[in-house]
Design goal:
Helix content: 25-40%
Number of strands: 6
Distance between the termini: 48 Å
Radius of gyration: 20 Å
Order of helices and strands: EEEEHEEHHHHHH
Structural class: alpha+beta
Shape: globular
Number of domains: 2
Largest sheet: 6 strands, antiparallel, barrel
Length: 230
Amino acid sequence: MPSLFRLGQVLRGSFGKYAITKEIQDTVWFAKNQAEENVVIKGVQGHPRVENERNVLKRFQDRNPYLRPLIDEIEEPSDPPTIVLKYLEDHLLNASIKKTLNRKELKYVSRRILEALKVLHELIGLIYGGNFNLFRPRNVSPDHEEYGLEVRKRQFRYFGPFQAKYEEIASPETIAAIMCLMEEIPQSQTTPFHRTTEKEVGKNDKEFIGKIMMLDLRDRPTSRELLGDE
């Protein structure tokens, strides 16, 4: 499938123009505004998720400082709906690769993520989002087609197994994938924190992480409940 935008293409927004400089994913590009500042461009042909993201940000970004700001909407070309987001120099995954975050730093980041989620959870029904993970598989990169599968394997190994009641909400395809995981990773090998000591991760922290990583989304606490955790 050809790229939606080409390198060097200029997009006209409500507040300025943006020249495409790099394609990051099929639906994400870097661009420069008229002041030569980096911005993020997002657009998807034939799918409403960018419109949904735009609507959510418009409604909630003024209520919480921890959401990536929407700074413009592209008017030309008008199709598909395309948004301009603030460019951030780095993200948590890269930062944690460069330097292991200590407990204080992790608590700082976690609290701000939860504060942002709390706003969304209380005002709209976005309780369970997709594509969120705390893992970095060594054998695949984030843009690899099997990245999600490898993350799921690690999640299953450290926080499994799935409870029987998960079948109530899972599709037949998901159930088939879970059965394969259970064959590949027997229950005896699903051992949360078996490689960590109490000094590395304390008991309370283990319990907190365990709550977040419940495999059945119906068992996970809300962000408000997690913010009440010490």
